[in-house]
Amino acid sequence: MNPTIKRLLSYCAQYPAWLTQAGICLLLATGAEVAGPLIIKLFIDDYLAPRNLDWPIIATLGVSYLGLQLLSAAGFYLQSLRFNRIAQGVVQRLREQVFATAIRLPASYFDTHRSGSLISRITNDTEAIMNLYVQVIGLLVQKLVLLCGILISMALLDVRLMLVCAALLPAVGAVMWLYQKLSVPVVRETRSLLSDINSRLNESLQGMPVIQAMVQEVRFANQFAEVNQHHWAARLKSLKINGILLRPLIDLFYMMVLIGLLALFAHEGVGVGGAIQVGVLYAFISYLGRMIEPLIEMTNQLNQLQQAMVAGERVFALLDEGRESTDGRSVPLAGRVSFHEVDFSYDGVQPVLQGVSFSVSPGQMLALVGHTGSGKSTIISLLMGFYPIDSGEIRFDDTPLATLSLAAVRCSIGLVQQDPFIFVGTLAENLRLGREGIDETRLWQALDEVQLAEFVAQLPDGIETQLEEGGKNLSAGQRQLLSFARALVGDPRILILDEATASVDSQTELALSKALAAARRGRTTIAIAHRLSTIVDADEILLLTRGQVSERGSHQGLMAQQGHYAQLFEMQSQGAWLEEKRA
């Protein structure tokens, strides 16, 4: 058995009661289904052909036949219902596992995989897996049991005729084998292209303001149409394989077996004086019709089976990805942070940081400055434990980061980014982010610290105001202040500002500066700064150039050196003066 299918089937074992109930219903329904033609055969051979019209018995046979049909329908319905419950339970559990894995993947995974691909695995691929349980496994088990029942009933009537009908099975098996060989590569291509469609769609929706501002609607529409065309071509290829190998070939085999049966009937003779009774003739033709339908349905489900198998491969590939380590010691951190000769590269080839060293203690502020690509944000990512370093050591309170629990470290850090992410929900929910032990008083205190409390108090719903996707009902400055308040709510020992004032107005920058001055007391503060005027009171400033510390010292010390930092500060000061003069 294919290992992916075997792994998917293992999820069913978690529902033994429903499986048992489904099996009992299936056996009852199959028994009732195959008993129907036997009753008709009995009626024809024992009562109709010899004109033995015993009406009470005939009526009993009729009622029995009707009862068997009702029992069969009820059994198959209940069996299908149980399998649907199992399918829904399995897919629910699988989706939860996939999402739980996705949010624990290391940051390096998201550097090389598009978000649309992950969305496709969580939604489209798990939906295809649900079809495996509902449409494929349920029907396959049902039809296989029915097929066995039909063959047994045929053998009880006439072994020779049963063998003629059984000739269908190896022919259908050959078709299934050929179909699998031809369809699997096509299905893999189709699922991959569907993932590309989701990625394109997700990217376009997120970048819609830029697309419209740059008048790129036609180009992006053409790119989407091209990917969609490739997906259509792959689907068409799959449909061609289905059209050739599934129903037409099975129908051809059915007609060949039917001709063989009729030829045998003609040769042996049918009727009272012949070797084959009329009732047997009817029963075999009826069984053959009931036999061909399961075979057709089983072959029709091969496409769903292949899609589920490929979807399972993609889902399990994600589930088997290495997650972030949850090991390590969970100890309270005072907040001292140090880098010792840290080297790092994203790809293992191009160095991003080389020999970076620094130390910052509670109550102190370290500022990181430098041109884009100099390694400032990389230092923050390494502090958060998003990537393992190549060499050197990162320590928190003289304890190596590698020996600490990442969850404990991150709980001790308050991160304020340049582009804050606001979740759909209330303002209070965005401040808490599920953290326990934070009451409303603490929320208002954090809002007051960032000078946002007055604004929130004026809102009709106050702290319970519903925020739209991305915080669209807030200004950019308000979103930044809310992000700062969110970082302060948990009372972190380490505060990290990743260019938090780079894209805000002067009023918001002033509010952030005041809030930062208060928040720094007793905390370790690390700030990435684009506007050098915001970090002049930092205890130490590191100027990074191509991943190396080229200058370090206080603002006054660096200005006295008349190096590159001093040049940058003078340029920004002149630019600010010109802007103020124009205003």
UniProtKB/TrEMBL annotation:
UniProt protein name: Drug efflux ABC transporter ATP-binding protein/permease
Q: Give the GO molecular function terms.
A: ABC-type transporter activity; ATP binding; ATP hydrolysis activity; ATPase-coupled lipid transmembrane transporter activity
Occurrences of domain ABC transporter (ranges): 337-571
InterPro entries per record: AAA+_ATPase, ABC1_TM_dom, ABC1_TM_sf, ABC_transporter-like_ATP-bd, ABC_transporter-like_CS, P-loop_NTPase, Type_1_exporter
Give the transmembrane region(s): 55-78, 132-155, 161-179, 244-266, 272-289
Identify the residues that the record assigns to the ABC transmembrane type-1 domain, covering every copy.
Answer: 22-307
Regarding the membrane, this protein is recorded as:
Multi-pass membrane protein
Keywords per UniProt: ATP-binding, Cell membrane, Membrane, Nucleotide-binding, Transmembrane, Transmembrane helix, Transport
Q: Where in the cell is it found?
A: Cell membrane
Species name: Aeromonas molluscorum 848
An example GO CC term for this entry is: plasma membrane
CDD domains on file: ABC_6TM_TmrA_like
